[in-house]
Give the backbone structure.
Amino acid sequence: MSAGQVYYLSGLAILLGINLIAIWGLNLQFGLAGINNFAYIVFQAAGGYAAALFALKPARAYGGFETYVGGFSLPFPLPLIAAAVAGGLLAVPVGLIAIRRLRADYQAMALLVLSLIATGLANAQTGLVNGPTGLALIPQPLAGTLKLSPLGYNWFFLGLTALCCAGAWWVARGISRSPFGRLLRAVRESESAVAALGRSPDRLRMLVLITGGTLAGLSGGLLVEYVTAWGPSSWLYPETFLFFTALIVGGRGNLAGAALGAFLVPILIVEASRHLPAFGYPGLIDSLDWVAIGAVLLVFLWFRPNGLLPERKRVLGGPPGPAASPAPPSPLGRWRTGAR
Amino acid sequence: MTLLLTIVIFGVYSAALLAIGAVGFTLQFGVTNVLNLAFGSVITASIFAEYGLTRHSTNIWLAMAVGAASGALLSLFLGQVVIAAFIRRGATGFGIAMVTIALSLMIQFSLEAIQGPYIFAFAASSPSTMDIGGVILSTGQLTTIIVAVAAMAGVHLLLRATRLGLAMRATAADTSLTRGCGVSPARTRAVAWLVSGALCGLCGVLLGLGEGSFSATTGSDFFITVAAAAVLGGIGKPYGAMLGALIVGITSQAAAAVISPSYKTIAAWAILILVLLLRPQGILAEFASERELVA
């Protein structure tokens, strides 16, 4: 393999790791607790902006090249921690607005509108995060101290991403297997049963919104520190559906399924198309990528709504056995065989 | 004083455009109980279809007819073929919302692939203007207001004066009881998708005319404002949608005039969130009950 190919593949591995963290976060919210968070990308965006504003020098240091608030010029790992905290904090106002007893599809639309409002504000308030142009020249963690070659630095960043991934996996798996995780599944399956047992479904939803938001924030922080630029066009609302498609393809509620989805959808579909021989005008392939993602989503919703690796049915008082009972009902529908 | 008059007149123009879309959206939702997030893509597809079919004829009436027809056909196909198939397979509310999202992505980005890096100009034949107390209104904007009033009157007549309209209102109120009375829900739903799509296409053509240009994202951006108007008026209620459109239209124009033009749509979208915060009980009654999905 040539050095260029190694460099390319290491970059791809970093992107896979970042997507894994984000999709595990969404799996907590949507897969486990059944919250249709159509504003998920905003949590990643908040993390990205937090990391950028903590890592950048004050705006005047760049001679009016960009305008933004903050610019604290803090050393690694503080910007990444700020990113995770920002994602978690954002969950509080979003949760206060969206966690209400509403129809699931209607709640999803309210969250979608929140996502659009966030994009609109980032574009309109040019002094906040440099408006539609976005932030650039974001310092990379330890780039100044390590003084590595581009490939060497990629390996370092891959290690950092793997570390964060391991942490995210530990959190997601811990929650999934804990009593808290069982409560979250209960909220998804029957909200009134949870309430009857004396637990507050809204409180549980808020907690998981914060946990998932923290993971999204962390993934955003890593992404921004890796690509060193971040603007409103990087987190338009269709990106949320990229994550949802990944979860539905892989299998929501299942960590391994989510990981498989993270590899198949954002990496395989989006990256594979870059290797097609160039045709048409620049940007045509990007548009066709999104058409393909919509088609994949539709095909999976029709043939395999529980994904490639469906969530295992858990049985009380024994090891989980796949043959013990039929698969749990999908939140996407009661899938009957044959016509009515 | 001129500022206030400007806000009111352009608010009424925005409301006219919104009302066409919001009534279509809400009518289809009320009858079929499907939250159609592909509505914005149908708006955009109608503009593209009109532009492609007539090579952008400067005859506004022809443009509106072609736009409405293509919107109606696409909407009927999505609703009665694709979405109905998923409902028969057993998808519930959120699953259907995901299906409409997938359809929306496919339509919007196919159009973007067709559009390429260009933005299409879309202009009226007669750019003459009219002066109302110092506020300049173009004939296109005046036509929009007139067409909207006519469309609202048409919807009113359909709902109140025909047996079909009666069946639509009955289906919206209680699907199983209506079926028990011997009304075919399939036909009623087909009409709802058709009328909704026709209003979609009409809205798209008038929107393109008003903006002077269009792109693959024109409809999806506008759809959120349409949804805000529909939700404000109590979703599923056509008369509420008309009122909601008026409030959203005037508010967004006020925000554009008083704060900054870039806040025009943000203000409209914020209304949707405000309704949710301040009157959850108002829309709760509508949304708490999971009505059955049938196709």
